[in-house]
TrEMBL record:
Top-level taxonomic group: Bacteria
Domain HTH gntR-type per the UniProt entry, residue ranges: 4-71
Pfam families registered for this protein in UniProt: FCD, GntR
Phylogenetic classification of the source organism: Bacteria, Bacillati, Actinomycetota, Actinomycetes, Pseudonocardiales
PANTHER family: GLUCONATE OPERON TRANSCRIPTIONAL REPRESSOR, TRANSCRIPTIONAL REGULATOR, GNTR FAMILY
This protein's name: GntR family transcriptional regulator
UniProt keyword list: DNA-binding, Transcription, Transcription regulation
GO molecular function, one term: DNA binding
Length: 212
């Protein structure tokens, strides 16, 4: 088994654990604390931060360190526009190829409903299943480049999704209903209905985030 480098460990921790937390937006990251949490020296942490700078997720401020800029309204709109295009394309392709991943999507939805029933619902776990629900559809289209592009949106997706859950009461339940509509449309083979369900779901998330 190939050993994971310190830089890769730091990168994964930052991308998958730290930056997905809406609370870190608008704050500076402490490299010493991060190094201790990850179990590496400061050098791989700094290298990982530079990778995240290149991805536009972190900014390096002279004499201050690594800053996590809040997502702007424009970035949110662009994210949701890209997600809508990719997911609607995946819906069309999988319907045409009869490869809609209904089992995987239903399983993800069932996990969300289970979390909802077992209050309190952990928003990060809920949104991780949300991400798997959507990613399974994109993956099933069979285009590796599109799938990797979509997967690369994970940090922004989770940050927006978790934040949106706190924008209104009972958002988790509404998400499950919206996911159910997407699954129903795909199961029926109705491409137009699937496109509409995907668009409506993402538009609501965008609106909730921007109206806060």
């Amino acid at each position: 088994m190939q050993q994971v480098s310190g830089r890769e460990r730091a990168y994964r921790h930052l991308r998958e654990t730290v930056l997905v937390d809406p609370a870190v937006q608008g704050t500076f990251l402490n490299e010493v604390d991060l190094a201790q949490d990850i179990g590496v020296s400061r050098t791989p942490v700094r290298e990982a931060l530079l990778l995240l700078v290149a991805e536009g997720l972190v900014e390096m401020v002279p004499k201050r360190g690594a800053y996590v800029p809040p997502l702007s309204g424009r970035q949110i709109r662009e994210l949701m526009e890209l997600r809508t295009l990719l997911e609607q394309h995946a819906a069309s392709v999988t319907l045409a190829q009869r490869s809609v991943p209904l089992e995987a999507m239903r399983a993800a939805l069932a996990e969300q409903e289970h979390l909802l029933a077992a209050e309190p619902c952990d928003p990060h776990v809920f949104i991780e299943w949300d991400r798997k629900f959507h990613q399974s559809l994109v993956d099933a289209a069979g285009n590796e480049l599109i799938a990797r592009t979509y997967a690369g949106l994970r940090t922004r997706q989770v940050r927006v999704g978790v934040a949106a859950l706190f924008r209104t009461t009972d958002r988790q339940r509404a998400v499950c209903v919206e996911h159910g509509r997407i699954v129903d449309a795909l199961q029926s083979g109705d491409e137009a209905a699937a496109h509409a369900a995907i668009s409506d779901h993402l538009r609501i998330t965008q609106r909730l985030f921007l109206e806060a």
